[in-house]
């Protein structure tokens, strides 16, 4: 096979193309810079202003690529190589990271107890050291992007409408879903399915069974919220903001755990502990992240203290935690609960907590009185 795909970079190729040519040349220059930065893995970049103007160099994707394709390689996240969908951050040397990768790097560094560094140039990164790059965010939003269903390219501005309303391959559900049809498939197959769907011809008795199952799951949700509402009627309720701080065990191979300072709720002294991935040895090596916690009563009690408790997000955090009510009867012998999972929706949300120096949550304790 001949390598005829590689096109040399004649410096006059864009002469006479006017604005477009200038834009392509600018992109090429930026791409070349990024490329060089990428290949030189240590030390800060010299300020580009101090250097003579760059000669036009190799561009990833080839000279012949379309402007959009070349912009992709310039504007993509240097970690996951995808085009950032939301905020874009940059290290002090200008390497771009999408918000997800940035938070992941910060969370990993907490787990490894190391300073987070830019994967490209190894300079230190943190929420204070890195800033957003609005120009890149705006440039990305101008680029065409691929529909996740039909894989055709659309301008970002019209993609949302296309995916929601126009795409023939978008995932749709049968209109008889409300009476239990589980079918889902591409939009273009929907009319065929609906014309032969068996659900509208089901008997009333059959439908009653289906609706009963659907009521069940709704009832479970209602039970949880009614449970919380009835706890709120208790006479003795205490709550406080709790701050988990990272520590290391003094084992031969140390493990990360979190602990709050002692706090007082309902006239008792308590401590919360938390661990990542159930104390997995190297949680930084796995993509899945979970946090579980334990409530410990530190004061001595004369009689057993039966409590319900609830850990929710703190006042200034945006992490999503589902409410789950736990119960425990605390006494001098049983002063620790089991480790229970903090119900965070997914690993991305969990990384948001781990990326921060301390984890701030709010704890409610309800004392059960008989
Ligand atoms: Zn990324
Ligand atoms: Zn960097
Ligand atoms: Zn589509
Ligand atoms: Zn159906």
TrEMBL record:
Keyword Transmembrane helix: no
Keyword vocabulary terms for this entry: Cytoplasm, Metal-binding, Zinc, Zinc-finger
Organism listed in the record: Neogobius melanostomus (round goby)
Family: Belongs to the ZFTRAF1 family.
Summary of subunit composition and partner proteins: Interacts with LGALS3.
Record domain TRAF-type: where: 143-181
Annotated PANTHER family: CYSTEINE AND HISTIDINE-RICH PROTEIN 1, ZINC FINGER TRAF-TYPE-CONTAINING PROTEIN 1
This protein's name: Zinc finger TRAF-type-containing protein 1
């Amino acid at each position: 096979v001949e390598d005829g795909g590689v096109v040399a970079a004649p410096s006059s190729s864009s002469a006479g193309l006017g604005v477009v040519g200038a834009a392509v040349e600018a992109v090429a220059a930026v791409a070349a810079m990024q490329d060089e930065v990428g290949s030189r893995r240590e030390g800060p970049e010299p300020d580009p202003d101090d250097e003579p103007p760059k000669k036009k160099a190799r561009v990833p994707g080839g000279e012949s690529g379309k402007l959009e394709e070349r912009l992709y390689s310039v504007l993509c996240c240097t970690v996951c190589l995808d085009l950032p969908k939301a905020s874009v951050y940059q290290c002090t040397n200008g390497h771009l990271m999408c918000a997800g990768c940035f938070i992941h790097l910060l969370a990993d560094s907490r787990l490894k107890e190391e300073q987070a560094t830019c994967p490209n140039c190894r300079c230190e990164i943190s929420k204070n050291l890195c800033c957003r790059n609005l120009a890149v965010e705006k440039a990305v939003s101008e680029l065409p992007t691929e529909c996740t269903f039909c894989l055709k390219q659309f301008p970002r501005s019209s993609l949302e409408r296309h995916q929601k309303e126009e795409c023939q391959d978008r995932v749709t559900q049968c209109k008889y879903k409300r009476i239990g049809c589980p079918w889902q498939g591409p939009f273009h197959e929907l009319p065929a399915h609906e014309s032969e769907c068996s659900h509208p011809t089901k008997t009333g008795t059959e439908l009653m069974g289906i609706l009963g199952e659907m009521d069940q799951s709704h009832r479970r949700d209602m039970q949880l919220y009614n449970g919380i509402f009835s706890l709120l009627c208790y006479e003795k309720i205490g709550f406080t903001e709790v701050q988990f701080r990272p520590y290391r065990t003094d084992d031969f191979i140390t493990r990360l755990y979190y602990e709050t300072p002692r706090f007082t709720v309902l006239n008792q002294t308590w401590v919360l502990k938390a661990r990542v991935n159930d104390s997995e040895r190297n949680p930084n090596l796995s993509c899945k992240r979970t946090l579980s916690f334990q409530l410990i009563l530190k004061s001595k009690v004369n009689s057993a203290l039966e409590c319900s408790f609830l850990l929710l997000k703190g006042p200034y955090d945006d992490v999503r935690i589902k409410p789950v009510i736990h119960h425990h009867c605390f006494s001098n012998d049983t002063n620790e609960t089991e480790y229970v999972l903090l119900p965070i929706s997914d690993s991305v949300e969990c990384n948001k907590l781990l990326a921060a120096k301390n984890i701030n949550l709010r704890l409610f304790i309800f004392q059960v009185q008989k």
